[in-house]
Amino acid sequence: MWKKIFGGGKSTPAPDGDDLLSNLAVDRERMPRHIAIVMDGNGRWAKAQGRSRSAGHEAGARTLKRIVRAASNMGVEVLTVYAFSTENWKRPHREVDFLLNLFDSFLAKEISEIHAQNVRMRFLGRRDRFTDRFLQRMEDTEERTGHNTGMRFNLAANYGSQDEILRAVRSIAQRAAAGEITPEEIDETFFSNALDTAGDPPVDLFIRTSGDLRLSNFLLWQSAYAELYFTETHWPDFTPEELSRAIEDFAGRSRRFGGLDAHVAGKRKSGRRSRALCE
Description:
The protein has 279 residues and is of the alpha/beta class. The chain has ten helices and six strands, in the order ααβααβαβαβααββαα.
């Protein structure tokens, strides 16, 4: 069972171009449509290198660029990454400022390439604590890439899944109180469309780097039946090659969604028929 959950250790560098797709040993129908990543370990990577946490975050941003390109080239439909949580505001003020400036710099430098890759970018989470400058950057990015038809890239910033769920519940409750909807109309699809990820499929593959074994309040509703992949690799060392391995590992799993494997169900039916014939 543990091999189904845990990935390997540090990866060796690999190409992140179109050859990844040709080398990927996964049938198209077994590809995960939606991959979520908790990009953990920038600080631990920096400590191991004898460098500052800021250097770790910068290295993590370079890794993100490579992974976005690789996921897009491999035909992933949706990639959602956890960049900054609602709890990250508790970190030292200097580190928070550095992270927000790094996000702003990342968007400024990479938006042209993201757009050229036909990637559509969207931001998840609350926007009430960001500067006007960063809010404008987010809005400009979403507007510029909004008509792209390739991979959808969600960046979760000032995001917490419990907060997201509460915001959705309040919105639905307000609509119900105003008589716009009835309780009978509220089902899983309706609720999913009230979340920040409205329109996206559920998470298929949930990846967390750097060894911790928890979800950390990330996409809890969307990951109800996600396959989990934990790796000891720190995020700055996470390569397109390890992303490929995670996808191949996912493709080799049996996803039952509470039911039975087809061959198991067939055996049980066959067994019942055999017993019936013997009787």
